[in-house]
Amino acid sequence: MKNLLVIIAILFVSLTYGQKNEASKYGDLISMEPSEVAASAILSINFLEANTLKYTISKNNEVLFTKEIEKNEGAQMMKFDLSFLEKGRYEIRFFVENNEVKKIPFKKI
Question: Which of 4, 64, 74, 106 minimizes the number of CB atoms within 10 Å of its CB?
Fold first, then answer.
């Protein structure tokens, strides 16, 4: 009985670590430049497989804008317009399969 409990505990820890590791894999491959934005920024997505990427722009934990991107196979770079935002500090959060994989703070100048 003890052995069964130990095996279940090890399996649970392994599955939990595997899911976190998958999310961090995507997070390391998403970036945005520059961190101080006047009107637009460049989004770089460097994971190879095609996937749906969702991002939200928020200020003080209030979501202001949400969009989904159908990412094609291969690395992809895209320009996105942030001119509609007022000056201030914001953060952009990226989600893959409803899991948050990256959060990037930026400043609108």
Answer: 4
Side chain identity, residue 4: L
Instruction: Kindly provide the b/e burial profile for residues 31-64, where b requires at least 16 CB atoms within 10 angstroms of the residue's own CB.
Output: ebeeeebeeebebebebeeeeebebbbeeeeeee
CATH at residue 79: 2.60.40.1930
Q: Is the dihedral of CA 42, 46, 51, 53 positive or negative?
A: negative
User: What domain range includes position 53?
Assistant: 2-108
Task: Kindly list the averaged pLDDT for each block of 10 residues, start to end, along the chain of length 109.
Answer: 70 56 68 91 82 91 92 84 93 90 93
Cβ atoms of 37 and 70 within 8 Å: the answer is no
| Distance of alpha carbon 32 from alpha carbon 105, whole angstroms | 10
The number of distinct structural domains making up the chain is: 1
| Alpha-carbon Rg for the chain in angstroms | 18
